[in-house]
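Dear Dr. V.,

Thank you for agreeing to look over these. As mentioned in my earlier message, I'm a first-year student in the group and I'm still getting used to reading structure tokens, so any feedback on how I've presented them would be very welcome. I ran two proteins. I've put each sequence directly above its structure. The first is here:
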Amino acid sequence: MSIFPEGFLWGGAVAANQVEGAYREGGKGLTTVDLLPIGADRFSIMQGNIDTLEPVAGAYYPSHEAIDFYHSYKEDIALFAEMGFKALRVSIAWARIFPHGDDEQPNEEGLQFYDDLFDELLKYEIEPVVTMAHFDVPVHLVQKYGSWQNRALVSFFENYARTIFTRYKDKVKYWMTFNEINMLLHLPFVGAGLVFREGDDKKQIQYQAAHHQLVASALAVKLCHKIIPGAKIGCMLAAGTTYPYSPNPADYLEAMDRDRDSFFFIDVQARGAYPGYAKRFFKDNDIVIEMEPGDEEILRHTVDYIGFSYYASRTTSTDPEVLGKTTAGNVFGSVENPYLPKSEWGWTIDPTGFRITANQLYDRYQKPLFVVENGLGAVDTVNEEGKVEDSYRIDYLQKHLEQMREAIEDGVEILGYTSWGPIDLVSASTGEMKKRYGYIYVDKDNDGNGSLKRVKKSSFHWYKKVIKTNGGSLSD
């Protein structure tokens, strides 16, 4: 018998800017992700170093077409239904609803697109799990207001939230406010549309922007509970426990501080107030958070569940020699962990860390968890028979799901599991297509060439069995 609870939400997760394409169709406005080219400049721009807020002639922008989900969503959802999906995590592109972000009236064509998308999911009894802001701030808000460093964005986001809650109240029961909200500290242009100029106090700008996002998130929670009684609205964290490299107490303290960089956001969203360690950090770093009257009361509107992504654990040290031995790992710095293997992109592979992270989050917040991203980016090839044999992905996912099962047996309440990229999509970090996550192969390369034909991988059939048995096949 499976220990996964009845009604467990098995499925997959995508983001509008990584699958939809049609970046200027249907009245959609330009977003920050639409300014991220593939190539050497991408990572610097993601950190807020950008000279022009418009696409540059001659550069290739993967989000502009992506995998054309905007036009092919019916065929793709039929494939997800064939796997037996109970849920699909998607995001709404803010600029499809309000092209400039501060428009007085929403764009009906954008609203209708998501109506049609949700209807198609519900036709197959697939629950939409909707992220309101997934790394795509309308560019107009960056140009005119400086994005989230400006308090004005709180009211624009509140209007956006009210609009989509009212429109989709009979179709969407699960919501999340900001995707990987802690990414604001690591990739500020991606996480919050922040652009830095010479002489800027970056920390002050980032934490003021963070305050505005936290207030906006709390207002969205308040609105969701009012407009859609019975709905569940959560936050979303880029998670992964940090190990101290050695038993040196200084290493343990460093690991604690690294984790708190992420927990800070969720502590506010789940507990309703700034934690003491954050107040000390602000004081020690001369950061002054400007609050309006009533902000502390607004923040008391806390989330119903904790959504999180897990790809890798992290390791840290205070030893200069150890710090020189770094490894890749999403965008979070980490020293090499000698006990863990790595993916083709240098990310550590740590299934046990998944269980540890889930326990850590549940112990801290005592709220239901939702695993909304987990997966392996790898180079997949179509063989002479037209098939994609991705046994390495099956192995990765099998081991992680086994550890999720262990976490559930530990007493951790988990609502569901939506693996990242059930269909190949544009990689957020690199902009590549060759870094594939899906159960479904999409014929497209890094240069934008390909037929966009969909091909089921061997993992497609493996995951179908996992869902059909409610995780029971993991014991086979």
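The second protein is here, in the same arrangement:
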Amino acid sequence: MLFIFDLIKIAVKIRKLTLFLVTIVFFIASSFIIHWLEPAIFPNPFIGFWYVMTTVTTTGYGDFVPETTIGKVYGLFLYFFGIALIGVVIGKIVESFGIYRKLKEEGKLNYNGHGHYVIVKWSNKAKHTMNEILEIDEKAKIVLIDSLSQTPFEHERLYFIQGNATDTEVLDKANVLGAKAVLIFTQDNEVNHVSADGTSLLTVSAIEGYAAEKKKDIYTIVEILKEKHIPNFKHANVDEFVIADEALSDLMAKSAVNKGSSRIIMNLLSRKSGVDIWKLPRHSSWTTYNDAFDDLKRKGAILISDRNDFTIVSKLSKSIPEDAEFFVICSKDTLKKLKQSTN
């Protein structure tokens, strides 16, 4: 009995992979041993394996039972050592899940997926943006890069990477090269606009530099606090800017002059309205803007722009350029139908 306890102590201390290999070898060897000890009861090693597993897992169906003394002695050995061994294995598996969860919460695991969205710097705005993305795209995965000690928010589609986004190792861990877009935010209640935009510029420069080094294209969207800093960001090849302070001021001004306009804009931006702004590929049957406008209207969508050009209504008779990028307002269900018809 003391010998068995000594073996269990050794099993607890050895490495997981070694333990799993030893366990597999032990169970397979036991299948052949019990077959060799009692060939009449266990006619082949598979039946022996069945007996071994039902014994060590305490299932004990009783359909195969050793009859000889030596067989029963080996059965007792299996009962004591085998059950203890598989208990240690299960404990190691549970421990591994705990370690994995801890490493994931602390942002120390690599993200190997593709087509995800990377958010740099956690804030209330970042959280709201994440919720909007997850609502708009039902299959979206979010990877957050921040220097926090652990993930700030628990969600099955949120993955946390701890570190600084100017570090190429951190960018590798977040797999930014495989991301749909990288969104860079500033901290909440930032007072020093120069410092905040400077930090964002340093971050996006590191990301774009990393992309250029790898000869890949990364779509970057940056929150900027002051419009006068935009020229600095253009040199960093930023794809889109969101100007926090000016956006609020513009919205307030429009609401003052055209009362109620802010509610319309906020409803359009919110997923709760049931409609949203979507990017739509050009259909081969569309020759003029009027073709696209009428076809989309019949299908329940409103064509609002070709990229940044909102003057489509004034030039419906003009031909659609090859590099046109249409933006429409419609529901998610309508968008699915439109994409099916354009494929």
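From my reading of the second output: The radius of gyration is 31 Å. The chain is about 50% helix and 10% strand. Does that match how you would interpret it?

Kind regards,
E.
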